[in-house]
Amino acid sequence: MNTKLIAVILFAATYICLLSFPKKRAHFALGSAALFIILGILPLGKVFFAINWNVILMIAGTMGVVALFIESKMPALLGDIIIEKTPNVKWAIIALSLFSGIVSAFIDNVATVLIIAPVALTISKKLNISPVSSIIAISIASNLQGAATLVGDTTSIMLGGIAGLDFLDFFVFQGRAGMFWIVQAGAIMSTLVLLFVFRKHKQSVSAMGRTKVTDFMPTVLMISIVVFLIIASFIPADSKPEITNGLICVGLFVFGLVWYLIKTKSPKVIFSSLKEIDLFTLLLLTGLFIVVGGVTEAGIVDDISTFFVNFGGGNIFLIYTLIVWVSVLLSAVIDNIPYVATMLPIAAGIAELMGIPPYVLYFGLLGGATLGGNLTPIGASANITSLGILRKEGYEVKASTFMKISVPFTLTAVMTGYLLIWFIWR
């Protein structure tokens, strides 16, 4: 049995187990990662580099800052304000998803979930309802808006690098509407889907007074994360470390710990904040990065990319359609970062051979790969993070529960973007 076939079987078995046994996802991911290494599919020397340390550090640092943020009672205040402004649970969920989308357009999706989820949890506890629906809505809305700007997602950053796009090009490019407006059209249509999905959530909500914030420093730290991540996006990739975003988040968390240590003169806040960092989620992501690295090393991602060129022939619409929808399907089960990194030069090569600008293929790839992760609970880091938050609250979410919300939302958003990108950039 050749290496490539072994990798395919191991990869398929891993994802079946991840979908079937949510409580053991980290164990299966790490076990599969170990097999990829032991079997020599991913050389030992490449294991460290297969892990996206920028994402790991960013999640860890943001989790720590979020712990301080929750302790300050700011999420409770935001929850009170949303309850005041919404007539029922349905609109509270919609408000949270829209808020999540706005934030996610400017910072990483995972960081967005970590920031907004505490607000949803606070609202759910005050209204004595399950937070599952609202957390899922926050997660998938954050993934959608990740393609809206240069800084919204790692895949957007990669596209900006290869296509030479800056921050403003995502709004207006070559005199035509950029990805930001295409994503907003998808957000409008998918929000209508959420309104239908949550149509039965008619429980009334009523204001219960506003919580008093005990300390504004964590809020300053959260805003600082957003500001510094945007500033970092304008620095050329070859002029900054690959883990820049992770260092920003961890650095601000450490600053917050030092601040509270000086203020309280007690190490209690350090231990309580470190305890809130979800090791289960971090280990799951670490294992998945290694598994995807093994699949990439085996050449499977390259084979998938070559398929587009051979099957599409000279029909640009067919090639575009394949790129969008195959990207959606593949991103539902594999990390979209190595996939997009592989497909961007392929898209450029196709465009060069056909003598056309590459942008319709670039934007189709970005939309399909970014949104496809929303289909399943393990298709995007933000989804994994959101389920980790729910798990800590005592809610184990089945794949079927997640997909009842995510599938109609995602297909609606993708179809909207698919049509608009073609008519604007064909």
Fold and architecture overview:
The protein is an all-alpha fold and 426 residues long. It has one domain. Helix content is 74%, strand content 1%. It contains 20 helices and two strands. The chain has a two-stranded antiparallel sheet with strand order 1-2. Strand 1 and strand 2 form a beta hairpin.
Number of helices: 20
Q: How many β-strands, per DSSP?
A: 2
Strand content: under 5%
Low-confidence segments, ≥5 residues, pLDDT <50?
Answer: none
Cα Rg:
21 Å
Q: What would the average pLDDT be, to the nearest integer? A: 82
Backbone shape: globular
Structural class: mainly alpha
Residues in helices, as a percent range: over 70%
Count the domains. Answer: 1
Q: Tell me the span between the first and last alpha carbons.
A: 44 Å
**Largest sheet entry:** 2 strands, antiparallel
Strand order of the largest sheet: 1-2
Helices and strands, in N-to-C order? HHHHHHHHHEEHHHHHHHHHHH
